[in-house]
Specification:
single chain; 639 residues; mainly beta; Leucine-rich repeat, LRR (right-handed beta-alpha superhelix); 5-stranded antiparallel β-sheet; C-JID domain-containing protein
C-alpha cells in the first residue's frame, strides 16, 4: 500500500478477515508525516488473531474496540493519532515490541504488567505523554526510549535487565531509585535534561555501562565519587554541564576502557575553568572546548599515548606545550577560536582546524611529513585556517604545498583501495582546505577568472591512468550584507559538462565539497576540496572539450551575495606503480598526477539543470598553460 496515494477505509472493509495475522500499512514518504489511510467513519473490524500490526500514522484514537491483543507479538504505530491503546489489564504474554514513537497525542499507557516478554518500548517524541506505569516487573525489557517526551516529569521504576535507556530532553529533575541497581545497563542517554540536578550517589553497580551521555544537563554540577569504578565505560559526554572538576577516581589507572571524554562547555555558557586529573592512556578522543583554559598543563599529554583527536576549541591559552609531540597517534587537532594562541608546535596531522585563530603567527614545521604519511584506511585531509590573518604568507604557502602533496598521496591511496578490494564504488574520502587569499595555487594548471572554465584537453585525456579532477575556487564575501562577516555552512558545487567521442552530449558530472560552520570576516578566501566517493563513468569515451561551472550553495539552495571570483582545475593521473599498504612515499611520487571526484548520472544523455551549449556560450574561454597527458608529456594550451 506504500504506492497508494490515499484510501478511506469503510467501517466494515476488513470485517471478514477473521483470521488476519499480519497487517502492515505504511508510507514510503514517512518523513513528510503524511497519512494515506483514513477511517473517517470509524472501523468496526475486530482482530482476534493479529500477531503483527504496523500502521504508520494510524488515525484511530484507541485500539480498544478493534484489537484483542492476547496474540499480538509486535505493535508498531509511529506517528499515530492514538491517545491511549486500551483500558484495563490485558493478557500480553506474546507481546515483544511496542513502537508509538512520534504519536504526539498519546497521553498515557495502559498497565503493561502482563507483558512479561516485552523487550522493546519505543515512546520517543510522544510530546503529550504524562506518565508511564511501573516497569520494574517487565523482566524481558532491555530497551526503553523516552526521548523528547516533553511533559514526562518522572521516569518509571525500571526493570533489572534494562540495557538501553534514552531520556533526552525530558523535564525530569531526578532519576528513579531503581536505576542504581541496573547492573546490565550499557547505554544511558540523558542529553539536554536541563532540570536534572544530580546522578545517583552510588553508581558502582553499573558494571556494564559503556556510554554515559550528559550533554546539556545544565544544572548538573558533580559526578558521583565512585564513577571511577565503571570499568566498562568507553564514552563519557559532559559538555554543557557545570561540572568543573573530574573526580580523582578518573585517572590513568581507572576507567581503562574510556576512549572518548568530552568535558567542554556550550558556546555562550559561563566558563568556569576545569580541573583535570591524569587521564586514561586509552583515550582516543578528548574534547575540552570552551573550558576557559589559560594554560595547557604540560602533564596533560603524559598518559594520552593513544589519543587521535584533541579538541581545545575556544580556550584562552597562548601556547601549547611542546610535549604534545609525544602524542604520536594524534590525527586531528581543533584549536578554532583560540584567539590568543600565537604558535603551534611541530605536529604531523591529518586535520588541523584553526579557524579564527586571529593571533596565530607560526606553525612550527606544520606538515604532512614524508615520514609520517602512510597508506592507511584513513583517507582524508583537512586544513582550516580561515581568518588566520597573521600567518606569514611564505609559511602559508609552505603549508599548502604540503597539503597538496598529501592530496596526491590520498588519491593514490584511494585508487589502491579501489583496485585491491575490487569494488564498484570508491570509498568515502575527503579533503577540505581553506585559508585567506585571493589566488589559485599554480598547482591547478587550468585556471580562469570567474566561475566557468572552458578547456580543450588532450584527445586521449581519459585513459586508464586518469582518476579525476582536483578543484579550487576563490570565493568573495565582500557583498555579504552581514557586517560581522559570513557565518554559515557553504558548499561549493562543480558541474562538468562533457561530450562523447561521437559528438553527442554525455550529460553532466557533479562534484560537491562542503565546509560547515564557516565564519569569514574578510573579503576573499581560497577553498579546495575532494570527495572520492564519486567517479567518472569508465564505460564512456569522452571528447576533449570540457566545461566546468562552479557555484555556491547551502543545502542545495544558491547563496546570495557571495560569488566565485576565480576557479581552477587540475587533471590527475596515476602514472607510477601503486605502493603496498603502509608503504611511505618518496619525493618522486610528487610528479604523479592524481584525483578529484565527479559523479556520473544514471542517465548521461539527460541534461539536467543547464544545457551544455548554454554553458558553453557563456563560458569564459580559458586554456591551461601546461596539461600533462598520461605519459607525463606537457602539451601546449593557453590560459
Amino acid at each position: 500500500m506504500s504506492k497508494i496515494r490515499d484510501i478511506d477505509l469503510q467501517p466494515f472493509a476488513l470485517s471478514r478477515m477473521h483470521n488476519l495475522r499480519f497487517l502492515k500499512l505504511y508510507s514510503s514518504s514517512w518523513w513528510k508525516n503524511s497519512n494515506k489511510v483514513h477511517v473517517s467513519q470509524g472501523l468496526e473490524s475486530i482482530f482476534t488473531e493479529l500477531r503483527y500490526l504496523r500502521w504508520e500514522g494510524c488515525p484511530l484514537k484507541s485500539l480498544q474496540s478493534n484489537i484483542q491483543p492476547e496474540k499480538l507479538v509486535k505493535l508498531e504505530m509511529p506517528r499515530s493519532k492514538v491517545e491511549n491503546l486500551w483500558s484495563g489489564v490485558q493478557q500480553l504474554a506474546n507481546l515483544k515490541k511496542i513502537d508509538l514513537s512520534r504519536s504526539k497525542q498519546l497521553t498515557s499507557l495502559p498497565d503493561l504488567s502482563k507483558a512479561q516478554n516485552l523487550e522493546r518500548l519505543e515512546l520517543s517524541y510522544c510530546e503529550s505523554l504524562l506518565a508511564i506505569p511501573d516497569c520494574s516487573d517487565l523482566k524481558s525489557l532491555t530497551y526503553l526510549s523516552l526521548s523528547d517526551c516533553l511533559k514526562l516529569t518522572m521516569l518509571p521504576q525500571l526493570p533489572h535487565n534494562l540495557q538501553w535507556l534514552r531520556s533526552c530532553k525530558t523535564p525530569i529533575e531526578e532519576l528513579p531509585s531503581s536505576i542504581e541497581v541496573l547492573s546490565r545497563l550499557v547505554f544511558l542517554d540523558l542529553r539536554h535534561c536541563s532540570k536534572l540536578k544530580c546522578l545517583p550517589t552510588n553508581v558502582c553497580k553499573w558494571k556494564s555501562l559503556e556510554n554515559l551521555n550528559l550533554k546539556g544537563c545544565s544544572k548538573l554540577d558533580k559526578f558521583p565519587d565512585d564513577i571511577g569504578t565503571l570499568n566498562s565505560l568507553e564514552t563519557l559526554e559532559t559538555s554543557g554541564t557545570v561540572i568543573r572538576e573530574l573526580p580523582s577516581s578518573i585517572t590513568c589507572s581507572c576507567l581503562e576502557n574510556l576512549e572518548y571524554l568530552s568535558f567542554g562547555r556550550i558556546m555562550g555558557q559561563d566558563t568556569i575553568g576545569c580541573i583535570l586529573p591524569l587521564l586514561s592512556h586509552n583515550l582516543i578522543d578528548l574534547c575540552l572546548k570552551n573550558c576557559d583554559i589559560t594554560e595547557v598543563p604540560d602533564n596533560l599529554f603524559s598518559c594520552l599515548s593513544s589519543l587521535r583527536k584533541l579538541n581545545l576549541k575556544g580556550n584562552n591559552f597562548e601556547s601549547i606545550p611542546s610535549s604534545i609531540i609525544n602524542l604520536s597517534d594524534l590525527e586531528i587537532l581543533d584549536i578554532s577560536n583560540c584567539k590568543r594562541l600565537k604558535v603551534l608546535p611541530e605536529l604531523p596531522l591529518i586535520a588541523i582546524r584553526a579557524s579564527n585563530c586571529s593571533s596565530l603567527e607560526g606553525l612550527s614545521c606544520f606538515a604532512f611529513q614524508e615520514s609520517n604519511i602512510l597508506l592507511t584506511d584513513d583517507l582524508s585531509i583537512e586544513v582550516k585556517l580561515n581568518n588566520c590573518f597573521k600567518l606569514d604568507r611564505s609559511l602559508l604557502e609552505c603549508i599548502m604545498k604540503d597539503a597538496l602533496r598529501k592530496i596526491q598521496r590520498l588519491a593514490t591511496s584511494v585508487i589502491k583501495h579501489y583496485i585491491d578490494k575490487d569494488v564498484e564504488t570508491l570509498p568515502r574520502s575527503t579533503a577540505e582546505l581553506f585559508y585567506p587569499g585571493n589566488e589559485i595555487p599554480k598547482w591547478f594548471d587550468i585556471q580562469c577568472t570567474g566561475s566557468v572554465i572552458h578547456a580543450e584537453l588532450q584527445p586521449d585525456w581519459f585513459n586508464h591512468n586518469f582518476v579525476g579532477f582536483a578543484l579550487c575556487a576563490v570565493v568573495a564575501f565582500e557583498g555579504h550584507p552581514d557586517a560581522d562577516g559570513y557565518k554559515d555552512d557553504i558548499n561549493i558545487r562543480c558541474q562538468c559538462f562533457l561530450k562523447s567521442k561521437d559528438g553527442n552530449d554525455s550529460g553532466v558530472l557533479r562534484g560537491l565539497f562542503g565546509f560547515w560552520d564557516v565564519y569569514i570576516n574578510q573579503p576573499t578566501h581560497v577553498f579546495m576540496g575532494l570527495d572520492f566517493q564519486l567517479y567518472p563513468c569508465e564505460s564512456l569515451y569522452y571528447d576533449n572539450e570540457v566545461v566546468f561551472k562552479f557555484s555556491l550553495e547551502k543545502y542545495f539552495d544558491p547563496i546570495e551575495d557571495v560569488k566565485v571570483e576565480k576557479c581552477g582545475v587540475r587533471l590527475m593521473y596515476r602514472s607510477v606503480p601503486l605502493p603496498h599498504k603502509k608503504q611511505t612515499f618518496d619525493e618522486s611520487m610528487l610528479s604523479a598526477q592524481t584525483i578529484f571526484h565527479l559523479r556520473p548520472l544514471s542517465n548521461l544523455g539527460h541534461r539536467e539543470e543547464e544545457d551544455h551549449d548554454a554553458v558553453k556560450r557563456r563560458a569564459v574561454s580559458a586554456r591551461s598553460g601546461r596539461v600533462e597527458d598520461a605519459g607525463g608529456q606537457e602539451t601546449g594550451t593557453t590560459t
